[in-house]
Amino acid sequence: xxxxxxxxxxxxxxxxxxxxxxxxxxxxxxxxxxxxxxxxxxxxxxxxxxxxxxxxxxxxxxxxxxxxxxxxxxxxxxxxxxxxxxxxxxxxxxxxxxxxxxxxxxxxxxxxxxxxxxxxxxxxxxxxxxxxxxxxxxxxxxxxxxxxxxxxxxxxxxxxxxxxxxxxxxxxxxxxxxxxxxxxxxxxxxxxxxxxxxxxxxxxxxxxxxxxxxxxxxxxxxxxxxxxxxxxxxxxxxxxxxxxxxxxxxxxxxxxxxxxxxxxxxxxxxxxxxxxxxxxxxxxxxxxxxxxxxxx
Length: 296
Description:
Blueprint: H1 2-24, E1 32-40, E2 56-63, E3 68-76, E4 83-90, E5 95-102, E6 104-107, E7 110-113, E8 116-118, E9 123-125, E10 129-131, E11 139-146, E12 154-158, E13 160-161, E14 163-170, H2 172-180, E15 187-196, E16 198-200, E17 205-206, E18 210-219, E19 226-233, E20 238-246, E21 249-259, E22 266-271, E23 280-284
Parallel strand pairs: 1-12, 10-18, 14-22
Antiparallel strand pairs: 1-4, 2-3, 2-5, 5-11, 6-7, 8-9, 9-16, 11-13, 14-19, 15-18, 15-20, 16-17, 20-21, 22-23
């Protein structure tokens, strides 16, 4: 009986020691964890004043080589101008997380983006038809490079505009002369030719293939003699056409060639647009008035 008691005591001591050792040994983290990204935008995203252009953020997870692992449902931009995007990652892995913020037309459960997204290629596509004088065609992206993921539950990121903006402005004299001739415009449409057709968010490179984009007629709210504005992917030598309307009547059509468009900058075509001999200048971000500053 004493021998049995001794053996039992020894076995119990061994199990107790093992349990103590197990509880004192740190366990390496493994498996997966969900990271909550808080996505924000530049303060100047509402370039035309309505402040509601970007209403959803699309995002996707890629591996180190750029292969799509997971595409997520677009998340709404909240009243504070931010979106919450959750991504699940495995420990010790490398990732690229792509975010695209833009305007979605919402009809019931259907959400249609202004710029179509090819998730497998991480590309946004320039629409062939858009609307003039609208900031619903603004576009922002960001790529978060994650190396050897070791945990962490939250991260803040700010997206960057990847478009150019082409604007037609008239001079003060041109506006006065047009008013005297009862030609003050109420709406305009535009066309931009030689616009890059796609933009790869992972590489930051626009396609060499180009398209012509038709920007439908939209109302004008005269501001600093602005006659027409349109967002597009940046290209070196665009051709820009402006159509001016007074009510339903087409009053003026002007075309300008060799128009440069630089990512995140305004290109301003300024001059005697409505009256006179169409004298104009083209400028990209010279120092001076607010209309010539970078978009961001």
